[in-house]
Write a structure and sequence with these properties.
It is a single chain. The chain is an alpha/beta fold. It folds into 2 domains: about 1-160 and about 245-280, Rossmann fold (3-Layer(aba) Sandwich), CATH 3.40.50; about 170-235, RNA polymerase II/Efflux pump adaptor protein, barrel-sandwich hybrid domain (OB fold (Dihydrolipoamide Acetyltransferase, E2P)). The protein is about 20% helix and about 25% strand. The protein contains 6 helices and 19 strands. It has helices at about 15-25, 50-55, 75-80, 90-95, 245-260, 265-270, and strands at about 10, 30-35, 55-60, 60-65, 80-85, 100-105, 120-125, 130, 135-140, 150, 155, 175, 180-185, 190, 195-200, 205, 210-215, 225, 230-235. A 9-stranded mixed β-sheet has the order 3-4-5-2-1-6-7-9-10. Helix 1 links the parallel strand 1 and strand 2. Helix 1 (about 15-25) packs across helix 5.
């Protein structure tokens, strides 16, 4: 109940962003996810962004529901669910005045987030500098520093390669051979063998690079460009991993939670609203 007075907007609803949302909601923070009209999420089985396509999705018991208007947000949150709003330009940030904004789009560059967006602004991964365009940066690179909170400086530079899993790194990623839309020939969670047809793009084949499970595949309604990441094969072959929040997402979510709880901005906000009767409405009254 204490943290119900600290509204958070998370920009992006991909699998790592959803790990952040999972941590925050479990801790009691009211969260709104804002997304593109056609999200590029790959691991859709664990991405709250999938609510944009499906209307409603659930990830490990956490339900996300697409909303069309700001006045629907409070009702969805009161039901214990996460509202997902199509808002690519972030107009809702100015309208709702959240206590915290988390840029979880993982674009590897800043797409326009500024320290002035909220009392506390947190950026995930490379592309942000704490003290310049946000207040805190969370390390997203696998390894010793994953999930750490940086109050000065930037995260480790983009390596251009995903983390290695059982010796597979770049080859884990499925990329569009040409521009077009994806026609899936396998479903997320399917066991696949090297050479299996997984999808086509513009009539061109996309095949499994090795044995494993299809962990992610972009939604077929999304137009893709040549070379865009459209899927992910996991060599560990554990189907359950396709439908549960990853250890990386939870580690990053833990870093965001630490940043919020340790930020002086949060303490100030709670002091200013130290009575339930003084709790700010969200969205704020017009």
């Amino acid at each position: 109940m204490l943290f119900s007075r600290v509204p958070v907007i998370v920009r992006g609803g991909g699998d790592l962003a959803s790990g952040v949302v999972y941590r925050l909601v479990k801790a009691g923070f009211p969260v709104l996810v804002i997304e593109l009209e056609r999200p590029l999420a790959i691991r859709r089985a664990v991405a709250l962004a999938a609510a944009v396509f499906e209307g409603q999705v659930a990830v490990e018991g956490l339900t996300a529901r697409r909303v069309a208007h700001l006045d629907e947000i409070a009702q969805v949150q009161a039901a214990g669910e996460v509202p997902v709003l199509v808002d690519p330009d972030g107009a809702s940030i100015g309208a709702l005045r959240p206590a915290v904004v988390v840029d979880a789009r993982l674009a590897k560059r800043n797409l326009g987030t500024a320290q002035t967006d909220a009392p506390l602004v947190i950026g995930l991964g490379p592309g942000f500098t704490a003290g310049v365009d946000c207040h805190a940066v969370i390390e997203t690179n696998r390894g010793h520093f994953l999930g750490r909170v940086l109050w000065q400086g930037s995260a480790q530079p983009d390596t251009g390669s995903p983390g290695s899993v059982q010796g597979h790194a770049l080859d884990r990623v499925l990329r569009a051979p040409c521009a077009g839309t994806v026609t899936p020939l396998a479903a997320i969670g399917d066991t696949v063998r090297a050479g299996d047809m997984l999808a086509t793009v513009g009539g061109q084949e996309v095949r499994a690079p090795f044995d494993g499970v299809l962990r992610g595949l972009i939604h077929p309604s999304v137009s893709v460009r040549a070379g865009l990441k459209i899927g992910d094969v996991d060599p560990r072959g554990e189907r359950e991993h396709c439908f549960t929040v990853s250890e990386k997402a939870l580690a990053i979510g833990g870093g965001v939670l630490e940043a919020i709880l340790s930020a002086p901005q949060l303490a100030l906000l709670l002091r200013e609203t130290d009575s339930p009767d003084d709790s700010p409405d969200w969205p704020p009254a017009k």
